[in-house]
Write a structure and sequence with these properties.
It is a single chain. This protein is mainly beta. It has a single domain, classed as Nucleoside Triphosphate Pyrophosphohydrolase. Strands 1, 2, 3, 4, 5, 6 and 7 form a 7-stranded mixed sheet that branches. A hairpin with a 4-residue loop joins β4 and β5. The longest helix has 13 residues.
Length: 145
């Protein structure tokens, strides 16, 4: 199976980071940045803007990359490389009425930097990179549920 590439948004608004729970029916308490797998023949920024809108109803402007993360499961034959981009909110508000058309994202929420100390999220370096300048690389880690 080929390595999958995905784009994810590091979106800070009013000093809070946007995260989503992408486990149907709350089967996991793990949160992550919104985004997803890239479609062929479309650039990562275009894929990311589409994914964020589908998952949250928010329109974004995609900026520069700030984090590259890799995770895998040898048992599942899965390996994903994620490119995280700094983004800004163009328009929209989170609404409880919004539904991800793919039915994957069931929760979306803004987290303050302090909130991130009490929530389980991946990748581990996301809180650090979200609230400071720079770029980082997270080495290969095993998939967590």
């Amino acid at each position: 199976m080929p390595i999958r590439i995905a784009a994810r948004a590091v979106l800070i608004h009013d000093a809070r980071l946007l995260l989503v729970n992408a486990y149907p029916a709350g089967t996991s308490d793990l949160w992550c940045a919104p985004g997803g797998g890239a479609d062929m023949h479309s650039g990562l920024p275009e894929n990311l803007a589409r994914e964020v809108y589908e998952e949250t109803g928010l329109s974004i402007d995609v900026g520069a990359p700030c984090l590259i993360n890799e995770f895998h499961s040898a048992a599942l034959g899965f390996h994903q490389v994620e490119v995280f981009f700094r983004c800004s909110l163009r328009e929209g508000v989170l609404s409880g009425d919004w539904n991800d058309p793919d039915g994957v994202v069931t929760q979306r929420r803004w987290f303050s930097q302090a909130d991130l100390q009490t929530v389980r999220l991946k990748p581990d370096s996301l809180p650090d990179i979200a609230f400071r300048d720079g770029i980082a690389y997270d080495s290969l880690e095993t998939i967590t549920r």
